[in-house]
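Dissemination and training. As part of the outreach component of the grant, students in the summer workshop were shown how a complex can be specified as a set of sequence lines and then modelled as a single object. The example used during the hands-on session is reproduced here so that future cohorts can follow it. Participants entered these lines:
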Amino acid sequence: MQSKAEGVLLIIGGNEDKTGECHILRTFIEKAGGREAKIAVLTTATQLPEEVGIEYKMVFEWLGAEVVDIIHVADRTRAFDQHLADHFSMYTGVFFTGGDQLRLTSILGGSTIDQAIKQTFAHGGVIAGTSAGASVMSHTMIVGGDSSETPKKSTISMAEGMGLIDKVVIDQHFAQRGRINRLLAVVAQNPNVIGVGVDEDTALLVEASGKCHVVGSQTVTILDGRQIVHSNISDSSLFDPLAITNVTLHILPDGFGYDLHTRRPYVSHK
Amino acid sequence: MQSKAEGVLLIIGGNEDKTGECHILRTFIEKAGGREAKIAVLTTATQLPEEVGIEYKMVFEWLGAEVVDIIHVADRTRAFDQHLADHFSMYTGVFFTGGDQLRLTSILGGSTIDQAIKQTFAHGGVIAGTSAGASVMSHTMIVGGDSSETPKKSTISMAEGMGLIDKVVIDQHFAQRGRINRLLAVVAQNPNVIGVGVDEDTALLVEASGKCHVVGSQTVTILDGRQIVHSNISDSSLFDPLAITNVTLHILPDGFGYDLHTRRPYVSHK
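and obtained this result:
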């Protein structure tokens, strides 16, 4: 129900502002040390690492970061590069670009770079990720699922994520792609997890204490299934519609917070 | 919180099966008297009254109805036709086709046909409506709103409905068109109303007692805002994202019921 270590997570729903006030990316640089921020932009998730990497490097430098390195780990060999892994100890922030969450986990999972990122986090660093880079943070992650459907078992497919945060499952581009039904099916599978749906240009900043703050122009949807009374997920077939009752739902814009321990929203204003 | 009269409502989310088992339309004919059912198919909402009317007439006759009349009230003059209104006393069921809910209310509102339909309902008749014909049943109805957006005040536009059911606002094609956010905004405006989102090929059968049963292949989503703690709807501007906390959400497939008085879902199996 909390991040596993002392660092901060910035879970971004994709399509964050990079040309205006840049509230979300600015928050990332501030949390990572401001003028002393040393940032690794990890482009593993994307098929366009150069374009995407350079775009973030320019924004982060413009926002005042001291160091911004684009790091493209494109295969398992590179993921076990000890020299590169050692280099990670200098970073105060790691940024996962969007792309495909299964690229991130299949290339990095269990590697020395994976360990190095977790070390950065454990030592108080900030791990930010957008879109696929957001989904990958949880222990179990969503890798696919039709969102235009009534909730069904077949709606979702899951995989092991990077495990930077426990008891939470993240979905992104949330309102924009109408993904509430697939996140509801996830929560019905195990109401112990809190469903976190992050809209585009919106982020959830998760502190080590389990306190979260919403940043950005849209909203974060929280689905808390702990009070679920009826659920037919264990005895329904793949294409049966799910029954789920008594889910608690919160829609939180900037200025609101959520406590992952008490499962309560609150007015935050950071 | 209940239907105003002694009749039964069948609120259909659109695109109901007309060629297979026809669970929903069969339920309508059964509730309207089975082999003694006398049905008025009201095509006012649609711009294609002939095609739509004949399709329903064929299905209802195939399902065993004794009488099926297609009634196209296309303007206010016809809506005040006293001879036609008198004729309504024979019907045991009225079926509103889909189309545009504002056509229904702008043509029928306050007319003698409007009164005649409500008389049929008050005398124990069944009023069924699909898509626009479902939305129109509530006292205040949704007439438009972008559903691909984060909830905002600007997301929804409302109008006075036919008022066959109180303290409920209905949305249709619900999961298929990803409409939860606009229904959440409706509930935030006044948590006294229960948001009822009906999927395609799914219906909510509402008895005069306030007990409801889900019929069909998909689900009905209930949004109960009575426990809302935070809501910024009164002080947000049109394009600010809404804050809404502690909404209770139920997803109910066939075999489940909901009590509009106690606001509780239950296992129904009719």
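Chain B touches chain A at residues 147-151, 175-176, 178, 180-181, 184, 199, 202, 217-219, 223, 229-230, 232, 240-256, 265, 267 (CB under 8 Å). Students were then asked to discuss how this feature might be tested experimentally.
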